[in-house]
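Our preliminary data section would be incomplete without showing what the modeling component actually yields. Below, a chain of 274 amino acids is followed by its predicted structure, encoded as tokens that our downstream tools consume directly.
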Amino acid sequence: MHTIEERGFYLPAARGELFCVLRLPRGNVRGAVLAYPPFAEELNKCRRMMALAAHAMAEQGWAVLQVDLFGTGDAEGDFGEADWAGWLDDLSCARQWLKAHHPGPQWAWAVRAGALLAADALHADAAHDGLLLWQPQLSGKTLLGQFLRLKIAASLGLGEADRIDARAVRQALMEGQAQEIAGYLLNSAMAAGLEAAAFDLPSGWSAPVRWLEVGRAIAPASATAIERLRARGVAVDAAVVEGPSFWQTVEVEVAPALIAAGCHLEGAGTCAAA
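Predicted structure:
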């Protein structure tokens, strides 16, 4: 096993500095992995799992970069000022930095809504050597609807006159009125970008895809997307592992089997979960 180096730094980007954590072996680096993060509170739920997995990948010789995008974590800005296009610019900046400092095979690692960000990013620049997906969300419109329902659910304990209508919330967003939802200020630009996002890979994509989900079986929507990609000739290696739904559990949970399975990048072998 390699000895791991871990360091944090700020990366200048268009709208402000992004906080980054880089994990890499103290030795030969076989390639690089850029993490595409989940959305809103799911990012907080996933941080522990992603940190453990990044450490495990680094033990196998990969340089792994995690980035707090504008308005999230320790990056500059507030969530309510962020938008989808800006996040894509942030990830492009991080991708360029990672490739310049750690050449070799370049993998995109997308967790939950990170799959939507990765899909948009790959359409803009498909120069990647592989894609690792963890429990990917495939429809930004569906995700937005689920997020808006958190606001509606929070209003159910109020009086009839104070209860919130889903259509009214969506209409207000489309008219440019930001909405506070579960502690996050969602602006209309972010909502529009999210609603338009959908998972697909660019025409001609030939790099391998490692698709991993937690549970008893691949979700029906995922199975449909996988078959569609395979019909186009995309090599999709799909697997299901046991473990909790760590992205939505009340307490922070860990799925060691997912960490181990997620390290199979170009024959990287099985990583031990920390």
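Helices lie at 41-59, 84-101, 114-124, 140-154, 166-174, 188-196, 220-231, 256-261. The two ends are 13 Å apart (CA to CA). Preliminary results of this kind motivate Aim 1 of the renewal.
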